[in-house]
Amino acid sequence: METVIANPVKVNKVRKSLYWTFGLLPIIAGLDKYLNFLTDWEKYIKAFEGIIPVSLKTFMMIVGAIEIIAGIVVFIIPRIGAFIVALWLACIVIVLVAGMNYYDVAARDLVMAVSAFCLGKLYSYKLKGNKEKAVLK
To answer: Which label site among 6, 22, 60, 123 has the fewest CB atoms less than 10 Å from its CB?
Structure first.
């Protein structure tokens, strides 16, 4: 594995901001699948009505539960949870593109998936060293 010299204070600031983002955001979005306060979530999967074996509302409630669990996993085991969130967001991108709609949301979710992947990579490294320099291994 490649060794990189980095400032651990700066690395930790980036790590923590992404940690809170990808811990809280899935939980908030997951809870909103039950409330529909932020948006009407069912509109994003309307193209799949009839294909999904349950009602759109029930499906989105299942999605919400999964998102809440993913956010909790980020808080408990960030190096694994971040990759779960990245994969989940990538799946959302595929669904949005397959539905031939909401390309703007798909683009945003793709950027978020890449960011969540980066969080997973940051938590995969071990920081060793002093405050000025650290070795990422």
So the answer is: 6
